[in-house]
Amino acid sequence: MIEKVEAIVLKTLNHGDTSKIITLYSREVGRLKLIAKGVRSPKSKVMGLFQPTRHLQVIYYKKPNSGLQMFKSGELVNGFFGLEEDFDRLTLAQVVVELLDRSIEDEQTHPQLFQLLADTLSRLSDGNISSARAFWFFHLQLLKELGYHPHVRHCSVCQAPLETGGSLGVASPHLECVKCHQPSQDSIFVSGSILEITQYLLQSSGDDLGQISLNPSERRSLWDFLWRYTFYHIESTRGMKSLKVLRQLYG
Ligand SMILES: [Zn+2]
What we know:
The chain is of the alpha+beta class.
């Protein structure tokens, strides 16, 4: 059976002498793994399609009950070439595709998530949009779409409002108020203003990200909060390779 999907390349792996295995995230069927035979030979015309972050239209042969399908042909929908002009944006885009790849279950169709991914890559490749804000928006919307919506308004234990901030610890996966939280070496405190911005990003449509303004220490705090929360709830995101590159860049 021949199928046609719209998809974004998440990762690729060389296979044999001339082939590649490509993992994509598609609008129609969610994660999709294809083997593309002969595409690494010098005569191949499609090799350039298979860079992570490329948005493609793909035709493949579908074999039922198989985890690996056969690539037939592909066309570029959007190369997001703006990413290649800016190393920071390219690195963040790699974090975006790896975070999505490690967070999703196999064979679950989720068109909203596909759209979020495509919109995020488009924002990151646009030099006029803040890449940090585009990333925070993606990160929070991804958590929300996957059912890990962080509750930032109230303490998870006593339900008191978290207007002045809240804490997360290794044994406390949800935010707690000062009275309920048992401080430990690993506790992190998130201020009321960061929680306010988190709530704003969770409710935003993504078109109004220019409203957000954070100083460097607030940026760091939001970053630490998001990753601490994500590592706790989605274990497979621990040890992300692209994140190591980003840490080397920013210390
Ligand atoms: Zn409390």
